[in-house]
Amino acid sequence: MTDKIEIAKSISTIWDVMTEEQREKFVNELEVRRYIESEIIFREGDEATHTFFVYKGRVKTEVLGLDNKQHIISMVPARSIFASQSPFGKSAYNATATTTEDSVIARLPNEHVYHLVESNPQIALMYIHMFSERIDTLVRRIQNLQRKHIRGKMADMLLFLKDKCGYEEDGKTINAYPSRKEIANAAYMDISNAIRTLSAFANEGVIAIDGRRYTILDEKKLLWISQKE
Questions:
Q1: Residues near 221 by Cβ (< 8 Å), separated by ≥ 6?
Q2: Are 207 and 201 in contact (CB under 8 A)?
Q3: Residue 70: helix, strand or coil by DSSP?
Q4: Which of 68, 69, 136, 208 is found 20 to 30 A from 118 (Cα to Cα)?
Q5: Residue whose C-alpha is closest to residue 145's, from 157, 133, 158, 159
Q6: pLDDT of 196-212, one tens digit each?
Q7: Is 68 helix (H, G, I), strand (E, B) or coil?
Q8: What are the residues whose beta carbons fall under 8 Å from the beta carbon of 91, sequence distance 6 or more?
Q9: Residue 42 in contact with residue 70, Cβ under 8 Å?
Q10: What angle is formed at CA 140 by the lines to CA 94 and CA 161, rounded to 5 degrees?
Q11: Backbone φ/ψ region at 101: left (φ over 0), alpha (ψ -120 to 50), beta
């Protein structure tokens, strides 16, 4: 298992501003576990007891929509915190978190996170900044889903994956491998429309598809579709 101190140090936004006493307690409280691909970390509605950090791998968070389908609301890459709102008045997790590949996940009890925020103004500011960014992202996604047609929603979804997960070494292939069903649910469309739209993008030379690998061939055109269609 990877050393806990190494993992704690990798959470640099918190580690770098802690006192030595806080760091020692932080390491003692930190729990680390390996998860296999598609393993559930917690479910929507479970008691919110911990804040989590992806050391290696990737996690998706999903909510159950009114259509009784799971909709992806976030892709959490390595070196990122998630379930970060749970120490602040949330008695239950508001989404289901699942690994999308073999992952190493750390977690910290919420009472300890709350104490850190309460006692360290720099950590409190970091949390305010993080919450602000996530609210902005969520508002933009809701607006896009309400205003855009099918092609615009799909283009927006692919760009969202690119922004959250980045590219593979080729600089074009999205470093995430969702199924057609996952993409359809995240874009709030049925799977047949999702498949047709992805195929149309491929035929137009905007993307290339190889199984679950999506390569963006013309990012400017994809952005134009996202903004105009």
A1: 204, 206
A2: yes
A3: strand
A4: 136
A5: 157
A6: 999 999 999 999 999 99
A7: coil
A8: 47, 48
A9: no
A10: 75
A11: beta
Question: What percentage of the chain reaches a pLDDT higher than 70?
Answer: 95
**Position with higher pLDDT, 144 vs 48:** 48
Strands 103-109 and 96-99: unpaired
DSSP string, 132-195: HHHHHHHHHHHHHHHH--HHHHHHHHHHHHHHHH-B-TTSSBBS----HHHHHHHTTS-HHHHH
pLDDT the model gives residue 17: 92
Q: Are 101 and 58 in contact (CB under 8 A)?
A: yes
When pLDDT is cut at 50, 70 and 90, the band that residue 144 belongs to is low
Q: What residue ranges define each of the domains in the chain, with the CATH number in brackets? A: 4-144 (2.60.120.10), 148-228 (1.10.10.10)
**Measured between alpha carbons, how far is 161 from 183 in angstroms, rounded to an integer?**
10
